[in-house]
Write a structure and sequence with these properties.
There is one protein chain. The chain contains 9 helices and 2 strands, in the order ααααααββααα. The chain has 230 residues and is mainly α. The chain has a single domain, classed as N-(1-d-carboxylethyl)-l-norvaline Dehydrogenase, domain 2 (Orthogonal Bundle).
């Protein structure tokens, strides 16, 4: 292990970024959870849907409530980056534009046919166009497939991490909280407790920096300082 770490530490590009930039840069957690809660927020987790009434493509078939949650979560994430930047004013990575629109345009450029706003950047991105919402056929219709990364990893490796960072800077996150509570109810999990703490019975499934001793002061480097001694 020490030999492996020494080789890793010899890679100069590894130090061009940090944990915050990796964790906060808009990606799957900025997309799947808000779109899915917009579609299924009031679903009881059992009652089947008429397949003909369900959207097929998760991005291309974006609907009104999904678009609203998408934009609200995007605003909350940008606000979180701003709050963290105040705590780490010397961190150049936190001075970048973390909006979902900017991220999509930067990474997909000419594939984004309508760059007007966040919603159009998502729905008109050719690279996103073929991705489908997973459904399971059941008697009476179809239901969303909960045993899928859209409903699982984006929460444990995205939204709960953001929630932990927000707690470090004492920032309220009503949208993130709402999505976590909805998602964990559907999956019969508990990460976020009613009191707003990340101490639920399944919290060990999540990436929670504060649970391994990382603080607001050390959040950018994490254990890198210790690793550099190898």
């Amino acid at each position: 292990m020490k030999g492996f770490m020494k080789r890793i530490l010899q890679m100069p590009n590894l130090f061009d970024t940090d944990f915050l930039a990796c964790a906060l840069w808009p990606n799957n957690p900025s997309l799947h959870p808000p779109i899915l809660i917009g579609l299924f927020e009031h679903w009881d987790g059992k009652t089947p849907f008429d397949p003909a009434a369900l959207p097929v493509f998760i991005y291309k078939d974006l609907r009104t409530e999904s678009a609203r949650y998408l934009v609200e979560l995007d605003h909350e994430l940008v606000a979180l980056v701003k709050a963290l930047s105040k705590a780490h004013p010397e961190n150049p990575n936190l001075k970048l534009n973390y909006s979902l629109k900017a991220c999509i345009i930067e990474n997909y450029r000419e594939q984004v046919l309508n760059q007007w706003d966040t919603v159009s950047c998502v729905s008109s991105n050719v690279a996103f166009g073929k991705h489908k919402i997973p459904y399971t056929q059941v008697p009476g219709g179809a239901v969303p497939t909960l045993k899928h990364k859209f409903f699982e990893t984006d929460l444990t490796h995205g939204l709960t991490t953001w929630k932990d960072l927000a707690r470090m800077v004492k920032m309220e996150t009503p949208v993130i909280d709402r999505i976590i509570r909805w998602n964990q109810r559907l999956n019969n999990k508990e990460y976020l407790k009613p009191d707003g703490t990340l101490t639920g019975k399944n919290i060990d499934e999540c990436v929670i920096p504060s649970r391994i001793g990382v603080t607001l002061k050390t959040i950018a480097s994490g254990n890198r300082i210790g690793a550099a001694k190898l």
